[in-house]
């Protein structure tokens, strides 16, 4: 997998992201992708080869390995990183769609025509909803993969010895030993911790976006109410002046 190309692609999201999203992207590539490429792949590279069972029964070792490792840690993390980073591409695609609409509008109506958007990359309207949806999607993916990891391996733990019981074609109970369980346990906790940090950052960004939008709407509502109140006062004063003028005209004048 070409992680460098993915990093260059997702780096464009920084132009349209908040500070929380920039920190999230740094955590993903420094503490997850970099650790995955440099160290984790090598630690899990020989997992099936060094999965040793105390039996000579043909096929028993492979069946026991599949029973305890339905999917490898390293492949599960690769899927997690792919699914987590994909929603950011939605924001890039939406901004590109806006820019294309703006270009076609200028070609059709001329360079001096009114713009469709004040800024194509400004998070308002549909782009705000797309950005918020991408955050919720990332949050759901992170939690789902952590749940799968916890469900398949109890409490993210890797024991030294696993017992393969009532699994054909293994005879009775077979003891199997995982290669380098302590090292794998350390990397598992590290990746889970990095994923938890990303979850916290995503939740903070969701609350930040919603809070910012509520504040903006409140300010607009206050401005609109002030304008309506000032307009009503001005119209009331204008009506009072007119009524006073009519009263002055209706009063009889005394001639000496």
Automatic annotation (TrEMBL):
SMART domains: CNX, Connexin_CCC. Belongs to the connexin family. Keywords: Cell junction, Cell membrane, Gap junction, Membrane, Transmembrane, Transmembrane helix. One of its GO terms (molecular function) is gap junction channel activity. GO terms for cellular component: connexin complex. InterPro entries: Connexin (IPR000500), Connexin_CCC (IPR019570), Connexin_CS (IPR017990), Connexin_N (IPR013092), Connexin_N_sf (IPR038359). Residues 141-209 form the Connexin cysteine-rich domain. PROSITE patterns: CONNEXINS_1, CONNEXINS_2. PANTHER family: CONNEXIN, GAP JUNCTION BETA-3 PROTEIN. It is a multi-pass membrane protein. It is found in: Cell junction, Gap junction; Cell membrane. GO terms for biological process: cell-cell signaling. Its main location: other. The chain crosses the membrane at residues 20-39, 77-97, 128-149, 187-211. Residues 42-75 form the Connexin N-terminal domain. One gap junction consists of a cluster of closely packed pairs of transmembrane channels, the connexons, through which materials of low MW diffuse from one cell to a neighboring cell. It comes from the Eukaryota. The lineage of its organism: Eukaryota, Metazoa, Chordata, Craniata, Vertebrata. The keyword Transmembrane applies. A connexon is composed of a hexamer of connexins. This is Gap junction protein. The gene is Gjb3.
């Amino acid at each position: 997998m070409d992680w460098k190309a993915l990093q260059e692609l997702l780096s464009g999201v920084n132009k349209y992201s908040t500070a929380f999203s920039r920190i999230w992207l740094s955590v993903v590539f420094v503490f997850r992708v970099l650790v995955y490429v440099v160290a984790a792949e090598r630690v899990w590279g020989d997992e099936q080869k060094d999965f040793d069972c105390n039996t000579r029964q043909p096929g028993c070792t492979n069946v026991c390995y599949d029973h305890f490792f339905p999917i490898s840690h390293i492949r599960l993390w690769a899927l997690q990183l792919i699914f987590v980073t994909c929603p950011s591409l939605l924001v890039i695609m939406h901004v590109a769609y806006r820019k294309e609409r703006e270009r076609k509008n200028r070609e059709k109506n001329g360079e001096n025509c009114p713009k469709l958007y004040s800024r194509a990359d400004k998070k308002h309207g549909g782009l705000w909803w797309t950005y918020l949806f991408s955050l919720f999607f990332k949050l759901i993916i992170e939690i789902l993969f952590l749940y799968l990891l916890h469900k398949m391996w109890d409490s993210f733990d890797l024991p030294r010895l696993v017992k393969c019981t009532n699994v054909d074609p293994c005879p009775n109970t077979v003891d199997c030993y995982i290669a380098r369980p302590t090292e794998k346990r350390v990397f598992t906790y590290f990746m889970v911790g990095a994923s938890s940090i990303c979850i916290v950052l995503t939740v903070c960004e969701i609350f930040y976006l919603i809070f910012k939008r509520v504040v903006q709407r409140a300010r607009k509502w206050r401005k609109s109410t002030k304008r309506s109140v000032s307009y009503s006062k001005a119209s009331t004063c204008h009506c009072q002046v007119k009524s006073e003028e009519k009263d002055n005209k209706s009063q009889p004048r005394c001639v000496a």
